[in-house]
């Protein structure tokens, strides 16, 4: 590498650094929907249908970025909201975006905040193949109630057992002559899990983390 190469390298560096290796993640976007009910803003949630992935869990509308359909992650959030709970783009006013959330299980989430131009949720027609029910919780509930916080430790396992009971080395540490500790499962970092208990449902995981971040940002704006 010489001085000319350095100049060339500099010209190819990202103008706005993003997430390295993002294409290797499950890249998704969600809408955090706010809806005005009796003079107070509520957060709108959906409960996933029991027969789908992560069935019966509470979440915001959203899903995987589709490069064949979506120009950007904002499009993903709006499209998935329409597909899941039938709210049209014309009824969604995007007011901003939170930071990208990188989940511990190989997921990235681009969260958008949107105000729904609807009088309530009674006339919302949702896709029952994907959604069991929808409901709202006043934003003030989350302002007043701190989430429960738990901590789990993630583990990296270089060995898998297939359906026939055969051992598969997914990472051949011994063959690569790496230290012996990498031939066995090794501990990763601890990961915090937030949990909100409402009167009817438990909201946890990524959805709870997004709520906590939203409340924290809103609270900081008044300090």
CATH homologous superfamily classification of the domain at 24-144 and 201-210: Nucleoside Triphosphate Pyrophosphohydrolase
The rough form would be described as globular
What is the CA-atom radius of gyration, in angstroms?
Answer: 21 Å
- Topology-level CATH name of the domain at 24-144 and 201-210: Nucleoside Triphosphate Pyrophosphohydrolase
Assign a percent range to the helix content. 10-25%
In whole angstroms, how far apart are the ends? 50 Å
- Compressed to H and E, one letter per element, the order equals HEEEEHEEEEHEEEEEH
Annotated CATH architecture of the domain at 24-144 and 201-210: Alpha-Beta Complex
Mean pLDDT: 94
Tally of helical segments: 4
CATH class of the domain at 24-144 and 201-210: Alpha Beta
How many runs of DSSP E, i.e. beta strands? 13
Largest sheet: 8 strands, mixed
Class computed from helices, strands and strand pairing: alpha+beta
Percent strand: 35-45%
Oligomer: single chain
Low-pLDDT regions: none
């Amino acid at each position: 590498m010489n001085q000319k190469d350095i100049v060339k390298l500099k010209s190819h560096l990202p103008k706005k650094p993003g997430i390295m290796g993002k294409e290797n993640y499950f890249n998704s976007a969600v809408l955090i929907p706010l809806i005005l009910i009796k003079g107070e803003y509520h957060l709108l949630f959906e409960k996933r249908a029991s027969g789908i992935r992560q069935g019966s869990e509470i979440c915001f509308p959203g899903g995987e970025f589709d490069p064949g359909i979506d120009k950007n992650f904002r499009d993903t959030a709006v499209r998935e909201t329409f597909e899941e709970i039938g709210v049209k783009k014309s009824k969604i006013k995007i007011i901003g975006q939170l930071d990208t959330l990188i989940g511990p299980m190989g997921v990235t989430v681009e969260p958008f905040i949107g105000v729904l131009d609807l009088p309530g949720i009674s006339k919302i027609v949702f896709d029952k193949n994907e959604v069991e029910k929808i409901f709202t919780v006043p934003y003030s509930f989350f302002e007043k109630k701190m989430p429960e916080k738990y901590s789990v430790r993630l583990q990296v396992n270089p060995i898998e057992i297939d359906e026939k009971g055969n051992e598969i080395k997914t990472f051949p540490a011994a063959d690569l002559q790496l230290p012996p500790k990498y031939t066995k499962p090794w501990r990763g970092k601890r990961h915090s899990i937030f949990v909100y208990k409402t009167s009817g449902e438990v909201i946890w995981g990524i959805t709870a983390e997004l709520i906590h971040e939203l409340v924290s940002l809103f609270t900081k704006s008044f300090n």
